Amino acid sequence: MFRDGIEIPPSSHDILKFNIIATLNSSNDQPAPPSVDQSNIIQPDSTKLRFPPPESLKRDKFLWLSDGEFARQTLAGLNPYCIQLVKVSDD
């Protein structure tokens, strides 16, 4: 995903490209991290998505083997902005 990219099926390339760009732009009303250049994720002439590696992965290739990083990625995936505070419902 970080080095080789993810291949997009040709028939759905434009629809998926539109959905990913819309998702990246909305992203829970959080600004994109400064290290993420969204123009590099989808190249206009490519059928692959290439994501920049997370900062933690740049520092230590084996960090994801730790329990804490495994739990973080299980909760939020690769986007740490997805983690939200769990609140008690008023119901």
From TrEMBL:
PROSITE patterns according to UniProt: LIPOXYGENASE_3
Pfam short name (any one): Lipoxygenase
Any one Gene Ontology molecular-function term assigned to this protein's record: oxidoreductase activity, acting on single donors with incorporation of molecular oxygen, incorporation of two atoms of oxygen
Coiled-coil region: none
Compositionally biased residues, Polar residues: 28-46
Region annotated Disordered, chain positions: 28-50
Top-level taxon of the source organism: Eukaryota
Residue ranges constituting the Lipoxygenase domain according to the UniProt record: 1-91
Identification of the protein by name: Lipoxygenase domain-containing protein
